[in-house]
Amino acid sequence: MTPADLAAAVLDAVRDAVEAGELHVGVPDDAVIERPRNREHGDYATNIALRLAKAAGRPPREVAESIAARLRQRQGIAAADVAGPGFLNVTLDSAAQGGLVATIAEQGADYGRTNALAGQRINLEFVSANPTGELHLAGARWAAVGDAMARLLRASGAEVGTEYYFNDAGSQVERFGRSVYAVAMGRPVDEDGYRGEYIHDIARMVLAEHPALLERPADEAVEVFTRDGIDAMFTLIKNSLERFGVHFDVFFNERDLHTSGRLEQTVQRLRESGHVYEGDGAMWLRTTDYGDDKDRVIIRRDGAPTYFAADLAYYLDKRERGFDRVVIILGADHHGYVGRMRALVCCLGEDPDVTLEIPIGQMVTAQGSVLSKRAGNVVTLDLLIDTVGADAGRYAMVRSSMDSAIDIDLDLWASRTNDNPVFYVQYAHARIASLLRNAAELGVDRGEVGAAQLALLDSEREGDLLGVLGEFPGVVTAAAELRAPHRVARYLEKLAGTYHRFYDDCRILPRGDEEPTPNAVPRLWLCEATRVVLANGLGLLGVSAPDRM
RNA sequence: GCGCCCGUAGCUCAGUGGAUAGAGCAGCUGCCUUCUAAGCAGUCGGUCGCAGGUUCGAGUCCUGCCGGGCGCACCA
Q1: What distance in Å separates the CA atoms of residue A432 and residue A427, rounded to the nearest whole number?
Q2: Predicted ipTM?
Q3: How many domains are contained in chain A?
Q4: CA of A272 to C1' of B44 (A)
Q5: How far is the CA of A314 from the C1' of B38 (A)?
C-alpha cells in the first residue's frame, strides 16, 4: 500500500461517514499523509480530522474517531488510532507494507511518475546567457536546475518545451564583434569591450574561415567578426551544455523576431491596447497602469526597439505556439525584470498570474568568489566540469534551494569521500548493484516479485526503508509543483542513508556454506526496489546511477 | 530611498500551518576473518535574527525593526 493508496482510503472513510450522516462536511479533494517522525505514532499519520473539525462543527478527536472506525475495517490496515489534538495514526499490516516493493518493482522506471500536472503545456526557458562570453557558474546553476525542473514537470505529466533564448541582436553583440576584431588586429580592446582568452579563440576561429578578412575595410570586417564570432561563441556554449548533459528543445534566435515581423506585430498590438504614448521622441508603454514603478520605453528615440519589445514578442510567440504557461528561470541579478514583464503581459490583456511565472534563483560562487584563482578568470562551466565532473557539478548546483545563495567548494565536490553528497547517493546505488550481482553468482534467484514473501519485511529497519520508498512519488510531485528540484536531491540523501542503515542491520545473502534464509528473497526485492528509486531520482536530476564505483 | 531573496547547531544547509525542529561536516567514543568501511552506531551541540500579531497550533502566515546578498537604463 502506497501513501497515495492510503490517502484514497482515508477519503473513502470520510465519504462513508458523511453518507452515514455522522459528519456534515464536503469531502476534500486530497488528504495529507505523513510519515511521522516518531514511529510510536504508527506508519502513517493524517491531520484530516483537524482540518475538517471546524467545518463539521465537532471536536477534532470525534471526527478522527469516526474516520478511524471505518479505516480499521479496511484490508491492509492493522490499526488506526486517534492521538494528540486529533491526529489519526495508521499502522499497516506487514503484507500491505511489503506490497510496496512489488509496486515499485513492477512499475520500474515509471515509479514516481504521476499525472499531477497532466494537461499543462509549459514552456520552460533557462540559461539564455548572452552569446558574448562563455557560460560561467550562474549559467551552470540554471542549466542544472532548469533541466532537472523540466524532467520533474514531465514526470508529473506536464507537456514541456525547454528553450534557450539566444540574444544575437543589439548593442552588446556589436560590442562583442568590435572586441574580436580588435584582438584579431592586435589592437587593445575598447574600455567597454570584452576581454578574456576566449575572445582570442573566437578571433582565430573566424580568421580560419576567412583568412583575408583583416585586409577588408574595417566596417565590413567587423560585420563578419560579429556574425561569425557569435556563431562560434554559440557553438562553444552548446558544446559546454552538451558536456553537462543539458539539452534544449529549442534555441530561439532573437534576430528572428526582428526579421520575421513578429516584433512589429507585437508593437502594433500594444498600440491597439491603448497603453502606448509618445514622449521625448521615443515610444513608451504605460506599465505603471499595472503596478510597475515607471513606464518603459518600447521604441527608442533612434527607432530601434528595446529588449522589452523583443521579450514581449518572444512571450507572444511562445503563447501562440500553444503553451499555456511561460516559465522563465532568472538569476537574482535580473529580478528587477519580473515586475516589468508582468506589467507588459497585462498590457497585452493577459493575466500574468495564470500565464507567466518567473522563478528567481540566487547567486552562486565557487571558493567564495565568482573568480577562479586557478584560471585568473571567471569560473566557467567548462572549468567546473573539468574540476569536479558533470555529475558532481550538476548535483552541487541542484541540491540547494534556488532561494539560497550558494558557494561551491570545488575540493569537496571533487573528492571521493562520504563528505561528498553525490558520492554518498551514487555509492548506495553501486552497493546495491554489487549485491545483486553477488546474489546471482551465489545462485540466489529472487524469482518473480509476486511470489516473494514480502510480509517478512517487518523489522524496524525494513519498515523505515519501506516508508522512505513510499514517499518518492509525493516528493516528485511536490518538487514539480513547487519548482524545487533540490527536494529530490535531499530525498535521495535520506533514502541512501536509510538504505545503508538497513544494510548494516539486515544480512541478506548467505555467508560461507550457509543456506539462504527465508528473508533473502524479500530482502533482495527490497534492495532492487531501492535501486530503482535511487536510479529514478538521480535520473530526474540528470545524474548517473553507476553500477560500480 | 524603493523592491526581491536570505538569517535555523561551531560550519554548510533541509524543513508544502501540525506531535519532542532535522541532516551532513567538524569534535568526542566505538564497529571491518562476513554481501562495496565511499558504510554504520553512540555522544556533544538550538532564545529557529529581534519584537509584536493571526491561529486550537507558527521555524513556516502578517506587520515593524536589525543584519547580509542582489537589483532599481532609450544595456541584455
Answers
A1: 9
A2: 0.95
A3: 2
A4: 69
A5: 47
